[in-house]
Amino acid sequence: PLAIEHLFEYDEGMEVLARLDAIALSTLVVAVARLSTESPAAELVDRLRELENLKNAAAAAQTRLTVALRQLREGEARAAGAPVKKAVAGVVAEVALARRESPHRAARLVGLARVLDQELPATMAAFVAGRITEWRASLIARETACISRADRLRVDAELAGQLDALSDREVAARARCAAYALDAQSVVERAARAEADRRVTIRPAPDSMALVSALLPVSLGVAVYAALKRTADGLRAAGDPRGLGQAMADTLVSRVTGGDAATVAGVEVQLVMSDQALLAGSETPARFVGYGPIPAGVARRLVAAASRENRAWVRRLYASPGTGQLVAMESRRRRFPAGMRNFLALRDEVCRTPWCGAPMRHADHIVPRAAGGPTTLANGQGLCERCNQAKESRGWMARPGPAGTVITTTPTGHEYRSPELAVPHEPPRWEITVDLRHLSAA
Questions:
Q1: Are 101 and 109 in contact (CB under 8 A)?
Q2: Distance between CA atoms of 292 and 270, rounded to whole angstroms?
Q3: pLDDT greater at residue 318 or residue 204
Q4: Least confident among 256-270, 273-287, 343-357, 361-375
Q5: Are the C-beta atoms of residues 20 and 27 closer than 8 Å to each other?
Q6: What is the DSSP string of 115-175?
Q7: Parallel, antiparallel, or unpaired for β 406-409 and 397-400?
Q8: What is the mean pLDDT of residues 70-80?
Q9: Distance (Å, rounded) from C-alpha 88 to C-alpha 61?
Q10: Beta-carbon neighbour count of residue 407 at 10 Å?
């Protein structure tokens, strides 16, 4: 057995790591999991440091493997006369599934791998040696993205001896300053182009709250915040009992929606909940479309508030008792009709690809229509645009699995199963049995 905590102290230890196959790597994972914690404090600290080195070196090994996989897939595409761009999209999807990451995150990892391999050799060397994290390597790549390859190599060499001792913020700042010193015009132009990336996003927060964020040019961001604060300060000066943050949040809601925080009109929100949770006081969680699970009590309160404003509508989605599997629908059309697509959107909500989590954009056949797949809910899935395009690459297949799952097979033969559908439903509360021996012949 390898002494994990001393693995980086010996050249032969590194050679052993270089020869590890998949089975040996699995054994190494088990060995690390069983690492003894009964040691003097000094040894515990030493092991913490060496495990950090091992973790970083493992991430660097993933980067090198990603580069190799991309080169392999690009070579196959060129040999077959297929688009290389589509092959790269397939690589992103394979990396996402193998690393249990979203395709968005995997695309960044695939891009980072290429940059480190071709344009940041000193950073890559520190990464391979376990001295810096994947995040720190990505900061250097990010801050030098707008300059030429030659200038990037100069920044890389300049920072080579400093990476061990700098924090993440210091690494980013020094890389940014070095890039600006070499090519100020490119950095300024990059800032101007960044305005095209302005956007508004939403993500769940604890306690049935949501975090709505806006990425804006700095001048607009500061102006928006200042306007909200100025209005909130005026309200509080006039005797409004709300706190500053509450007043600013409520002002934002009223200015965006045209109504106050208590009665937002003209915007459709969707709740998926069981009839028992809605009408009979059941505590089975509901699902707020675009957010996720919320307590049944919170859902009932939202429905009650909407009812007082004559804004509550009920759309029935029939599910099998006890399982929550929605009742099947089918169509003779090649495309999913609007009603069935809406049904899929409420059922799936997010992309069905494992670890993706992006909002559903496309209603897709699991087994393609061209291969005889029917247009049914059982053969339907919601996918994001990226995943829907990736599954069109050579060697990808999918089939319906048990309990509403989807089993995806990649070009290497690896299989990944999506999570079971989690539509709010009531579990069986009783079971009726009949003993026929006590019935009369009549």
A1: yes
A2: 11
A3: 204
A4: 256-270
A5: no
A6: HHHHH-HHHHHHHHTTSS-HHHHHHHHHHTTTS-HHHHHHHHHHHTTTGGG--HHHHHHHH
A7: antiparallel
A8: 94
A9: 19
A10: 15
Paired with 359 in beta bridges are 350
- With CA atoms as reference, report the closest residue to 275 among 295, 294, 300, 298: 300
Whether residue 247 contacts residue 235, with contact meaning beta carbons closer than 8 Å, is answered with yes
Q: How do residues 230-251 score in pLDDT, each as one tens digit? A: 999 999 999 999 999 999 999 9
| pLDDT of the residue at 159 | 93
The secondary structure element, H or E, covering residue 205 is strand 199-205
Q: How many CA atoms lie within 13 A of 167 on its CB side?
A: 2
Residue with tokens 């989690």: 422
DSSP 255-275: HHHSS-TT---S----EE--H
The type of residue at 22 is A
Number of other residues whose CB lies within 10 A of the CB of residue 183: 19
Q: Measured between alpha carbons, how far is 124 from 132 in angstroms, rounded to an integer?
A: 9
Give the separation between CA 275 and CA 263, rounded to whole angstroms: 25
Look at the block and give the residue holding tokens 């670890």: 355
On the CB side of 389, how many CA atoms lie within 13 Å of its CA?
A: 12
Q: What is the pLDDT of residues 76-90, one digit of tens each?
A: 999 999 889 889 999
With DSSP H G I counted as helix, E B as strand and the rest as coil, what are the percentages for the chain, rounded to 5?
55, 10, 35
- Tell me whether residue 431 is exposed, middle or buried, using C-beta atoms within 10 angstroms of its C-beta: 0 to 12, 13 to 18, 19 or more: exposed
Distance of CA 25 to the CA centre of its chain: 26
Among 87-101, 102-116, 330-344, 371-385, which stretch is predicted with the lowest mean pLDDT? 330-344
